[in-house]
Design goal:
It is found in: Membrane. InterPro entries: MFS_trans_sf, NRT1/PTR, POT_fam. It is a multi-pass membrane protein. Belongs to the major facilitator superfamily. Proton-dependent oligopeptide transporter (POT/PTR) (TC 2.A.17) family. This protein is mainly α. It folds into 3 domains: 241 residues, MFS general substrate transporter like domains (Growth Hormone, Chain: A), CATH 1.20.1250.20; 75 residues, no CATH class; 244 residues, MFS general substrate transporter like domains (Growth Hormone, Chain: A, Up-down Bundle). It is 61% helix and 5% strand. The chain is built from 16 helices and 9 strands. A 3-stranded antiparallel β-sheet has the order 3-8-9. Strand 1 and strand 2 form a beta hairpin. Helix 5 packs antiparallel against helix 15, helix 6 packs antiparallel against helix 12 and helix 12 crosses helix 14. The longest helix is centred in the first third of the chain and has 37 residues. The protein starts with 25 loop residues before the first helix and ends in a 7-residue tail after the last strand.
Length: 580
């Protein structure tokens, strides 16, 4: 194998041998990965999009309980990746963590299909009316759901980062390809979500829940077969540290220990290894930044105690990066709460409206979620092929606009969407009062298509938010913690679901106490869902102000790098922040 054709970032094959740049990685390797992402998203959204209806119609849960349980499960799906990412970064690597976790995921899908298909495991139904589920049936159903959540914990944070690993940051051509990777990666997930919200939801409500869950189970097995066919093409990153997350504890402790020492006037006097002395291919050192200066004490050269282990500037800066990402992450929780409405209250809102489109065809309320996906599918190519090149010429930024600008635009669109949702709900309640509708089963004479604008705008917003967050947290993570870094994206969605569950529960109890009318009652025709949407609009607007403030203070990662075939150091400037 000629050294000059080996990847410059030090990636290896499954056996640990260096890989040829010409025959591995890039889009030809990612082609085997995107199939899994599409089928996995089809499975997840095939469950999440219509779960609230299954819980209310088949398991007889009330509105607040069903919304809370959907949010709790969705939150778990998005939070368990923290564990999976830690295992990948510290022990097994991305490939093997994904492999073991995908088996758990498939097992959960099989269990769930059985829970809605096998006669003894599901409630008995006659003419569409189901009897109350037994405790054992409910237990098995939720065990199935949370088995899926556990499996997702190992697959979600590792499959996308494994895909990004297929591009060599030290190769200019491949680095340019990587700029578009996350756009097209999310595009594949949108395809899976579209099939789920259009096809699977209809199948579940009209042909049976067993078939509706069985199709994505088979699809998931097929996608895993395709994934492993691509094994000879995959590149695997070598872990530089056995337990990189330990630096997050070691650096603050060292800084506290050195709290009485004087910080040097120049950052160049802090401790750092020489770039030429780094081991392994694709050498990277993170450059010093002037934020969180108290942590710099961890890298002070203490001449009075040479035996005490010192932290390098790179280790200190890695901890600073994580602290900065935590602050940005906190500002994404409210937008994640807004996103949680798509599979919960938006669906329940849709069930009250006239769902007949033509003749005898009625659209399932959960299928409106497909318009979120459709707007995403239309927006991603436009964003990548037209918007980015246009803005690149204007700003000189390789991404067109900065990552945090991308998030800010998405948050503004999301606020507009929730404002429209509020206005539509005000109109719905006006129609309810005008027609003297009081019962929960009465259909409001207002087309469900009135809800389309809020779905479509949330899809547009997600092209900026979801893809922007995934790329931001991958790009800004310390090199050895990129799987763990991307869990900032997944955990934000998870906490957003739990936050929505908390808000729904608290608002229901506070507004319904002392005989008052709950904003989110079982009978949405006699509630005040518009007040709740107004509340979400207010906190979203306030959160936008907080986001703009913390973004203006964020300083982006800069690295000094050295490729395998050269010893010249250069700055890899990724400072693509809100500042221009």
């Amino acid at each position: 194998m000629e050294t000059k054709d080996v990847t410059q970032d030090g990636t290896v094959d499954l056996r640990g041998e260096p890989v040829l740049a010409s025959t591995t990685g890039k889009w030809k390797a990612c082609a085997f990965l995107v199939g899994y992402e599409a089928f996995e998203r089809m499975a997840f959204y095939g469950i999440a999009s219509n779960l609230v209806n299954y819980l209310t119609t088949q398991l007889h849960e009330d509105t607040v309980s069903s919304v809370r349980n959907v949010n709790n499960w969705s939150g778990s799906v998005w939070l368990t990746p923290i564990l999976g990412a830690y295992i990948a970064d510290s022990f097994l690597g991305r490939f093997w963590t994904f492999t073991f976790s995908s088996l758990i995921y498939v097992m959960g899908m099989v269990f769930l299909t059985m829970a809605v298909s096998v006669k003894t495991l599901k409630p008995t139904c006659n003419n569409g009316v189901c009897s109350k589920a037994t405790p054992s049936q409910i237990t098995f159903f939720y065990i199935s759901l949370y088995t899926i959540a556990l499996g997702a914990g190992g697959t979600k944070p590792n499959i996308s980062t494994f895909g990004a690993d297929q591009f060599d940051d030290f190769n200019p051509a491949e680095k340019q390809m990587k700029v578009s990777f996350f756009n097209w990666w999310m595009f594949s997930s949108f395809v899976g979500a579209l099939f789920a919200t259009l096809g699977l939801v209809y199948i579940q409500e009209n042909l049976g829940w067993g078939l509706g869950y069985g199709i994505p189970t088979v699809g998931l097995l097929f996608s895993l077969f395709i994934f492993y066919l691509g094994t000879p093409l995959y590149r695997h990153k070598v872990r530089k540290s056995r337990s990189p997350a330990k630096d997050l504890i070691r650096v603050p402790l060292a800084a506290f220990r050195n709290r009485k020492l004087q910080l040097p006037a120049s950052p160049s006097e802090l401790y750092e290894v020489e770039l030429q002395g780094c081991s392994g291919g694709g050498k990277r050192l993170v450059q010093h930044t002037p934020i969180f200066r108290f942590l710099d004490r961890a890298a002070i050269k203490d001449a009075t105690n040479c035996s005490r282990p010192k932290c390098t500037v790179t280790q200190v800066e890695g901890t600073k990066l994580v602290l900065g990402m935590v602050i940005i992450w906190l500002a994404t929780l409210v937008p994640s709460t807004i996103w949680a409405q798509i599979n919960t209250l938006f669906v329940k809102q849709g069930t009250t409206l006239n769902r007949t489109l033509f003749h005898d065809f009625s659209i399932p309320a959960a299928s409106l979620g497909s318009f979120v996906t459709l707007s995403m599918l239309l927006s991603v190519p436009l964003y990548d092929r037209y918007f980015v090149p246009f803005m690149r010429r204007k700003t000189g930024n390789p991404r067109g606009i900065t990552l945090l600008q991308r998030l800010g635009v998405g948050f503004v669109i999301q606020i507009i969407a929730i404002a429209i949702a509020y206005a539509i709900e005000v109109r719905r309640m006006h129609v309810v009062r005008t027609n003297h509708i009081t019962q929960p089963n009465q259909v409001v004479p207002m087309s469900i298509l009135w809800l389309l604008p809020q779905y479509i705008l949330l899809g547009f917003a997600d092209v900026f938010i979801a893809i922007g967050l995934l790329e931001f947290f991958y790009d800004q993570s310390p090199e050895d913690m990129q799987s763990l870094g991307t869990t900032f994206f997944t955990s934000g969605i998870g906490v957003g679901n739990f936050l929505n569950s908390f808000l729904v529960t608290v608002v229901d109890k506070l507004t319904g106490q002392n005989g008052g009318k709950s904003w989110i009652g079982n009978n949405l025709n006699d509630s005040h869902l518009d007040y709740y949407y107004g509340f979400l609009l207010v906190i979203s607007t306030l959160n936008l102000g907080v986001f703009l403030w913390v973004s203006s203070l964020y300083i982006y990662k800069k690295e000094a790098i050295e490729a395998k075939d050269g010893i010249e150091s250069k700055a890899l400037d990724t400072s693509l922040g809100l500042q221009v």
